[in-house]
Amino acid sequence: MTLDGIELGQSVSISQINILHVNTKRRLLSMGFIPGACLKVIGITPFHGAIQIKIKGYYVAIRHSDASNIEVFPA
User: Fold this and answer.
1) pTM, 2 dp
2) Chain-centre distance of CA 43, in angstroms?
3) What is the 3-state secondary structure (H, E, C) of the chain?
4) What residues contact residue 51 under an 8 Å CB cut-off, 6+ apart?
5) pLDDT for residue 75 is more than 90
6) What number is the average pLDDT over the span 45-67?
């Protein structure tokens, strides 16, 4: 399952990041999106906008298209 399909309030762990664009992947890794990291979806904007996430004590928003390339499993 991928991060874009997670319900609001659900906690998951990252299993794999399948983003090919090097700069985008580097940006996500620097924000703590690494395999094994736990995160919680705290907000979803309408019309496939951003997904708001709490990860490692920080609140971040990522594009829906980027979230669709992050594989997760239930925490």
Assistant:
1) 0.92
2) 12
3) CEHHHCCCCCEEEEEEECCCCHHHHHHHHHCCCCCCCEEEEEEECCCCCEEEEEECCEEEEEEHHHHCCEEEEEC
4) 3, 4, 41, 43, 44, 45, 61, 62, 63, 64, 67
5) no
6) 94
CATH code for the domain defined by 3-74:
2.30.30.90
Two tokens, residue 53? 């996430």
- pLDDT tens-digit series, residues 17-50: 999 999 999 999 999 999 999 999 999 998 989 9
Q: Tokens for 38, please give them.
A: 């736990």
Residue type, 23: N
